Amino acid sequence: MKDKNSNIAVLELKSFPVLLELLSQKGYDLYGPTIDNDSIVYDQIHTVENLPIGWKDRQDAGSYRLEKSNKETLFGYTVGSHSWKKLLHPANERLWKATADGDRFSIKTPEEDSGKRAFIGVRSCELQAMAIHDKVFTMGPYVDTLYQYRRKNVFIVAVNCTQPGGTCFCASMKTGPKAQSGFDLALTEIIESDRHYFTIEAGSKSGTKILSKLPTREANQAEMEAADKAMEHSAEKMGRTLNTEGIKDLLYNNFDNSHWEQIAERCLTCGNCTMVCPTCFCVNVEDTTDLTGQQAERWSSWDSCFTKDFSYIHGGSIRTSATSRYRQWMMHKLSYWVDQFGTLGCVGCGRCITWCPAKIDITEEAEIIRKK
Ligand code: SF4
Ligand code: SF4
C-alpha cells in the first residue's frame, strides 16, 4: 500500500478496475469517455472495457478523426465535442411544472438531483472550465441551485493530458496540461516498453480516502520523472498558442477593426462553437402550456449568441450582423468575461476550432487583430 507520507503513488493497469469498483461501491454512478458515432463522448460507463482502449483522435481546424493507436491506452485521446457541461448544466432542463387544481394551481420544482456521480478522465482544461462555471452559477448574487446540487455530488478523477490535440492551447492559457486543483484524484497514464501504469495523487479528503483503499505503492524517482516528462512533452506538443498579453484591452481597442468583417464573411453563425465550448453557459427560458390549459412548464435550454433572437429585445434584435455576433462571442470570452468574472472565458480546449465548419480559429483571429 501507499506510504502515507508520499504524495504520489503508483497504480498498475491491472488494478485500475479496483478504482471503478470502489467508486461504485461508494454509490457513485460512473461517467467517462466512451466511443459513439466515431467520436469520444462522455457517458455512463460500468467497466474499464467501456473506455476507448487503444483509440486516439486527430484534430485540426474543422476536422476530427478517431483512429486506432499503436498503444493500448485507456485515455490516449484529447477531448471530443462533449464536455462535462452536459452533465452539470444540461442542454434542456425543466425548471418547474404548474398543475391546475380547481381555481388554484400548484407548482413543483425538480427534485434536488442528489445522485452521486464520479467523472472519470477529466482533463485539466475541463477542471478550469468547471471552476469558471462554479463562479458563474454559485458565487454571484443569484445561485443556480440545480447546478449547485449536481456539482457538490461529483467525485472527480482527473487524467493529465499526455495527448494534446492539434487545436489545443491550454499550455498558453496556463490551464493545463497538468491538473493543478479541483480534482479528488489525478492520474497520469504511462506506457513504457514493458509496463503500463498510472501515477496517482489525491486532491481532496474524499480522494485521499479512496486512494488509501487502492492497491498502490509509493512512486519511485523514475516513475515520478516519467510522469513529469510526459507533462513537459505534452506542453511542447500543443498544436496552438494564444498570446493573452493585454488581450482584454487589445480587443476593446479594436472594436472597429475591419478584421471582424472578414471573419464574418466566413462565419455561418451556426453556433457550433458555443455548443461545444465548456464555458459557454447562456440559456433561453421558455414557458409552455398543454392544450387543456391544465399544465404549464418552464424549460431552460442552451442558447447561442450566434442566433439573431439571442439579442432580441422589444422592437428587434441588437446584433443583426454576423460581424456583431462573432465579435460579441470572442470579446465576451477574452474581454467582457474578465470584467464580469475576473478571469478569461476560454480555457484553451480547442473545441471551437475543431468543430467550426468554417475552420475559424480563435487563436489565429486574435493574432491577426493584434498584428493589425
Ligand atoms: S465561428 Fe464557426 S462554429 Fe462559430 S458560429 Fe461561426 S461558423 Fe459556426
Ligand atoms: S472558446 Fe474555444 S478553446 Fe476556449 S474554452 Fe471555449 S471551446 Fe475551448
What does this structure look like?
By secondary structure, the chain is α+β, with helices and mostly antiparallel strands. It has two domains: 9-95 and 104-237, no CATH class; 247-371, no CATH class. It contains 13 helices and 16 strands. An eight-stranded mixed beta sheet has the order 3-2-8-9-10-11-1-12, sandwiched between helices. It has a four-stranded antiparallel beta sheet with strand order 7-6-14-13, with no helix packed on it. It is globular and about 70 Å long. The N and C termini lie far apart (59 Å). The model is unreliable at 1-5 (pLDDT under 50). It binds iron/sulfur cluster (SF4) (2 copies).
List the helices and strands and how they pair.
Layout: E1 9-12, H1 16-25, E2 29-36, E3 39-44, E4 55-60, E5 63-68, H2 85-88, E6 92-101, E7 104-108, E8 117-122, H3 124-138, H4 145-152, E9 154-159, H5 170-173, E10 185-192, E11 195-202, H6 205-213, E12 217-218, H7 221-237, H8 247-252, H9 259-266, H10 272-276, E13 283-289, E14 295-302, E15 312-313, E16 316-317, H11 322-341, H12 351-354, H13 362-371
One iron/sulfur cluster (SF4) binds at residues 267-273, 306, 356-358, 360.
